[in-house]
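Entry 14. Ran structure prediction on the chain below.
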Amino acid sequence: MNNGDLLAAIDIGSNSFRLEVARYVNGYIERVDYLKETVRLGANLDDNKALSQDAMDRGWACLARFGERIRGFSTNNVTAIATQTLREASNRSVFVATGQQYLGFNIDVIAGQEEARLIYQGVAHNLPDDSRPRMVIDIGGRSTEFMLGQGLRSSALASYKVGSVSWSQRYFANGQLTPQAFNNATVAAKALLEETLGTFSKAHWATAYGSSGTVGAVDEVLRANGRGATGISHSDLRWLITKLCDYKYSEYVDIAGIKADRKPVIGGGVSILKAIFELFDIDTMQVAKGALRHGALQDLVKRDTPRAELRHHTVDYLMQRFNVDALQASRVSQTALHLFDQVDTQQTDLKSARQRLMWASQLHEVGSIVSHNDLPIHGAYMLGHVDAPGFSIDELHVLSQLVLGQRGKLKKVDAMLVDTSFAKQLLCLRLACLLCHARKTPDLNTLKLRCDAHGYTLRLHPTWAQHFPQSIWLLEEEVKYWARTETLLHIEGI
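Output, structure tokens:
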């Protein structure tokens, strides 16, 4: 794989077809384009498991449009994957043969476990690279995948023939949404999925994640209605089912966050998700980024990145991507960590806090690629929305807030300062940025930071005022900023 190569992954799903176009940059995959079309291939299997002509025509038309988008791509850089519907279809060879002509690339119909493996790979690259065991579920149109793993490595994979399209057709005839229909669909899903309890029981994982499809759609609805801030809860599902039943029919559903193409299959998807919550006694399910197509892209490039170092490599990549001044980043990082390491602390996540401070220091100038004016605001926004493999949404939020608060008034991060660990990291970052403002490395041996009941005290060598008058003025301003918070800063040696 050469730097700058274009890649493409096509997911030929039961409900939607998706195309992910990406670029290989310095060992990382950077999104270029994303296309999605609702084809509902899986809604048109007859009693003989054959695809209807209309369904095949819709699918081929979509593949033709995708083929036009990726025309000229190297065959080695494109992967097209078909899942459950084409696993079942008796005439799949007809669809695949013609579909390949329209697309211009080979189409592979993969097994259920391979689908699960790729989904886990796609999800895992967007989750923290920690040692906590996790379960990942993905409710598709005609199948649901279960995965167990730690970090980037999966340990158990399974696929079951239960999905939002098939369940909606079977238990929500004519789109009718009733409490009885939800109950029947949930009981049936539990009956089919109950055998998963042996391998995927709660004893085998610490956190449950849901990806793509139904889970993503439910998450959008909850957030649009002021719910689900910390994940999808069982009570959230009960609320959603009640709201859906109020409309009686899926075509009349008018709930914020539900897209038109999701309405016909929302009943089946939500009932399966409810069944999983009840089977595994899940209180809250976290919503994960990443999907089958992302795992397929990872397979294309076959990266050899050391897994434990994923987040460090991601930070290095972001620095390169946003043209960060590496020397200044190193100065600020070295100074911030020097100050942080001097402060006596009993916090249990000392190592994690130190890492966050290091990453924030290295990335504090990412916003400069937009404009040096309001650099903290630009940087915070970018870190809050960038694709950063290995980092969770919460971790990126903390990094974005550290970058936002790197200088100036502290009111903009006031809500975060109640966390003493965050306040400590921010203080060290702000002092480091201040002391390195001339883009020179300060004499670290002359900088001593301590913490006591009266706050933080930075002790300087008596000659500092003489040699660095600008820094002294900035430090005096910094004392005033912190005086407006519950974390006080004092300077000795001025």
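The chain has 19 helices and 14 strands. Will compare against last week's run tomorrow.
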